[in-house]
Amino acid sequence: MLRRSHFVRSSGLRLVGAGGALLIAFCAGRLSDAPVMPVAEAQEEAIDESIVARIKEGFEGLRRAQVALEQSGRYVPAANGVNSFIVLAGGYDVLNSLETGRGVDPETYAALEAGFAPQHVLSELGRDENGRLTYKKELVRLMSRETLRTLYLRRGEVLGEAL
Predict the structure, then answer these.
(1) pLDDT at 135
(2) How many CA atoms lie less than 13 Å away from 41 in the CB half-sphere?
(3) Is 138 helix (H, G, I), strand (E, B) or coil?
(4) Residues 127 and 138: beta-carbon distance below 8 Å
(5) Which domain of life does the protein's organism represent (predicted)?
């Protein structure tokens, strides 16, 4: 019994130590400027034409839905291009959310980081002393967890998707 107890205790310590090492490695990777994971080789291969055709069909449907949401006032973009996250959620005033500092959805954030936004937004983008993205000298953030959750749940209702 003593031997097993010692084994269980030492195994537990090893598990805690391994978990701690993984946590430190994860944090170090997240804090560095280096990419966390290299791009998979499969992503560099050409996409099959039948898949490209389906992607284009889906994109065209999303584009038409986005135009309808914009015309109805349910979607006000802060970036260029189709925002599938917001379209599938039924719209959102992303520009107002950016203007008021409440944060933006992940697709808008990525587009702003990459410089894909209307000129009136681009002209207000910058970087702070730490190199973080700013809008009108205020840090650009992702939406709150609650807002993201609400949009995901609304998307589930719109699509009939169980999350």
Answers:
(1) 98
(2) 0
(3) strand
(4) no
(5) Bacteria
Alpha helices by DSSP H, 72-144: 84-88, 94-99, 106-114, 119-122
Q: How far is Cα 137 from Cα 132, in angstroms, rounded to an integer?
A: 10
Task: Note the pLDDT tens digit of each residue in 77-93.
Answer: 999 999 999 999 999 99
Which stretch of DSSP H or E encloses residue 135?
A: strand 133-135
Do residues 104 and 140 touch, judged by C-beta distance below 8 A?
Answer: yes
How far is C-alpha 23 from the geometric centre of its chain's CA atoms?
22
Cβ-Cβ contacts under 8 Å for 162 (sequence gap 6 or more)? 156
Higher per-residue confidence, 77 vs 10? 77
